[in-house]
Structures are given as structure tokens and as C-alpha cells.
Amino acid sequence: MVEQNTQVNAAARRRLAVDPWSAGAVVIxxxxxxxxxxxxxxxxxxxxxxxPHLIRTTLPRYLANSGVLMASVAVLTxxxxxxxxxxxxxxxxxxxxxxxxxxLLPLAIPAYVGAYALVDFLEYAGPVQTGLREVFGWTSAxxxxxxxxxxxxxxxxxxSMALYPYVYLxxxxxxxEQSGCSYEVARALGSGPVSLFLRVGLPLARPAIAAAxxxxxxxxxxxxxxxxYFAVQTLTTGIFAVWLEGGNAGGAAQxxxxxxVLVLALMALEKASRRRLRFHALARHHRxxxxxxxxxxxxLAATVACALPFGLGFVLxxxxxxxxxxxxxxxxxxxxxxxxxxxxxxxxxxxxxxxxAAALFLVYGVRLTGRALPKMLLPVTTIGYAAPGAVLxxxxxxxxxxxxxxxxxxxxxxxxxxxxxxxTGSAVxxxxxxxVRFFAIAQGAADAAMxxxxxxxxxxxxxxxxxxxxxxxxxxxxxxxGSVGTALLLVFVDSVKELPATLLLRPFNxxxxxxxxxxxxSLENLGDAAPAALLVIGVGxxxxxxxxxxxxx
Length: 553
Description:
With 553 residues, the protein is an all-alpha fold. It folds into 2 domains: 19-35 and 334-522, MetI-like fold (Orthogonal Bundle), CATH 1.10.3720.10; 50-277 and 294-328, Orthogonal Bundle (MetI-like fold), CATH 1.10.3720. Helix 12 (235-245) runs antiparallel to helix 13 (249-276). The longest helix is centred in the middle third of the chain and has 34 residues, at 335-368. The protein contains 25 helices and 2 strands. The protein has a two-stranded parallel sheet with strand order 1-2. Helices cover 77% and strands 1% of the residues.
């Protein structure tokens, strides 16, 4: 009886003992979720409640413009991405093998860079209108009509050209996973090309299209650079206006909470669509789709249809930016550009290392412990990727500023030193925002990589006396170093391109490449912005090439 009680007490002590891996995983998850929780708390407890005023005045306009942009970009990207994926998968035509990968390249172009390039190309003093005036002898804008460039329609075009690769990539993968037997049966029953697409291909790929379109809509509602440049008032620009111009952090948090609700609704709809639509291959042996060779006019039409998004989404912005960058001359040696480059590499590199390290610790800790709380928090940490940068800026700056002032006051009372603003006066807040924003990338890569390792390997290491930390270092890390390297690169690249969070959280006189491009282009000085923009594009190309390589495999 005494022995039994001893065993029960020992088991109880083990349950109550603090597991460092479990505790660390919970701490990391809480840090990732804290900015989102801060936004919700600030929205529910504002110092000055302007919610009724927002509802009566600007909020309907913000919602309407955001809704129109989201719907328009979703329709256009779904049409372009799905159409290109269908043509590339089902047919062979001139340049199709090249276009299969070239269609991914617009992912390397930040949408705001595409906006600056489009305006420079099509504005009154740009090459298009200048050429028209020279050809037709027009002398002023009164002699001809040209569509307004800085408009909501232009914003839709720019965002669609930057975001359609999401739909193309996922939809192409869905088409490739389908069996060629389905199409052979449909053709035997008399289905033509249009009927094949509408009755076989589209229904089977609908879950992938829905998932990609949801991502596109989330990226659209979170955009700031494009809509601000085109003077389209959306929910994201409303955050900047209410906070920075109106000085009301609570009102900005209330607008941010509306964005969070929209994003969560999109995520729920996307998951619901995948749950309702499931298809399984019935054939025992999967037969890949055999592409059909096109000739003549259909081949030309397919080439043009696939080349057009690539041309508008990549060739045009790169051509315009490269032209200005080559003419910049000494602009490449500008101290401001070199300082922005150094800041970008520093904060992006720190964010990548810290994010991937935290994700590895979290995923490994959850796998190591059998406790419910870390397992429950693991999937929730991905919400940061869906939260726009402006929302994270609200959720980080106000709490960190309060902590900064409290820390400075305590240091002055205890040590008699004025340490200044340690958190918000440095790049700490920016690195924190990047880590939260892109934590889902690192977490997904770590979880998938560790899931591919046979459980017998770490069990064997533990049986040979390895500790949990030793097993992670000796077994897991050598086997997943490729995935870790990929996650580091992807987080770094996304950090380089991030604009809204950097604008809100950067200390005084601190620029990254993204904010330098924004500042110079906002002053209509694309020549000085071009070198920084070209560097951002170059970094983005690294990620796209890596993505193309992994999808080829």
C-alpha cells in the first residue's frame, strides 16, 4: 500500500513538474499571439472611443473600397492564374516550357514597386503618352483622352499582376495531380476543350483555386503601398490616417480589428470550401496528363495569353526600374542607400534567425511533450501570417512604448541613468514584427521537415543516452538542414519586402530598402528609388528561384 502511494505521488510530481520544452513552447506561442491580443484589447478598451464617428463617416468608405478591391483582384487573379495553369498543364505551344516558370517571377516584385513603375510608364510625361503626342501631333492633354492612372482600377491591375502567381502555382499543382484517365473518358464521351475545363478540370481544382484566392484576398486587404500611392482609401490606409494623423491609437485598433475579422472570415471560408470539396483518385495507377500540341492560331493565342501576365507583372516593372537604376550613376553609392541596405540585412537576418530558431523550439517542444496546451497553441500561431503588417504595428508599438517608458523610469530611479527608449528607439520592434508576421513560414517548414523523420531515429538516440537537446542537435538538425535553410531564406526575403509594419515601427531616421523606395517614390523621385527597388527585386528573385526549384522536384 505504501509503495502504491509512493508511485502515485511520483506520478503526480511528474505531472506538476515544469517541463522546459513545454514551457518554452508556450512562451513562444504567447509571444507570437501577443500583438493580435493587444489589438483586440485596445479596440475593446479605447482611450477615446471614436467607433460611432467612424461608422458615420469614413468606415463605410474604407469597407466599400476594400471590398471592391478584394473582389476585383480575386476575380482577375483567379481568371489569369487558373487559365495560365490550365494552358501550361494541358497543352504544348511555343515557349510553354519557359513560360511555365516565367509565370512565377512576378512574385519577386513587391506590389508597391509595380505601382511606381506603372505610373512612371503611363503618366503624362511617361514614354507611352509622350510617344502618342509625337506620333499624332498632339500638344497637350486637352487634345486627347487617356485613362486616369492613379485610380482604383489601376490599383486592381497592379495587385492582380503581383498576386496571380499564388493562384497559378496552387492550381497548376492541382491540375498535375489529376489523372489523365478522367480527361480521356470525358473526350471519349464527346467533351470538347471548353467542356473539359468546365466539367472536369475546374471542379477538381476548385479547392486549390479557393485556397489561393483566399490568400490573394488577404494580401489585398493588407496592402498599403499600392493603395496609398493610388489614393484609394482602404482599411489599411485608415489605420495610418486615424493613428498617425489623428493621434488615436484606439480608433486605429478598432479599424485593425475589422481587418482581423475579414481575414479570419476568409480563412474560415477557405477551410470550409476544402472540407466540402474532396476528390480521390479511383485508379490504382496514376496516369499523368498528356499535353496536347497546339498549332497555328490556337498556339499563338495560348502563348500570348500566358506571356501577357508575365510581361505586365515582371518585364514592365523590371524594365522601368532597371532603366532608372542604370541612369542613377552615383546614386548606387549614396550613403542613404548603403545605410538602408545595411539596416535591411541586419533586421532581416536577425528576424530570420530568431524566427526559425523559435519555430524549431516550438515544434520540437510540442512533439516532445504530450501536454495539451502546447499542442492547442501550435496551429494558432500561424495567424500572424494572415495579420497585415499595419495590424501588427498597432499591436506592437503601443504596448512596447509603454514597456519602454516603464523600463526607462525604473532605470532612472534605481541606477540614476537615462537609458532612453531601448525597445521602440531601436530596431527591436521591427524584428519582433517580422518574427510574428512570418512565423507561420518557419513553423510550417519545421513541422513538415520533422514529420518526415522516422520516429525510430530519435528514439534510438534517446535510448543511447542522448538528452532531448542532444537528440535535436545530433539527429533532427542534420536531417532537416535543407528545410531550415529554405525557411531562413523565405523569412529573410519577406522581411526585406515588408513595408507597413516597418513604416509604423521604425525608429527616427531608420530606413530599410522598402521604406527608402516608398519615401523616394512618394516624392515622385523614382530615379533615387530605383537602386533600392532593384535590390529588393533581386532578393525576391532568390525566393522565387528556390520556389521554382522545389516545385520542379
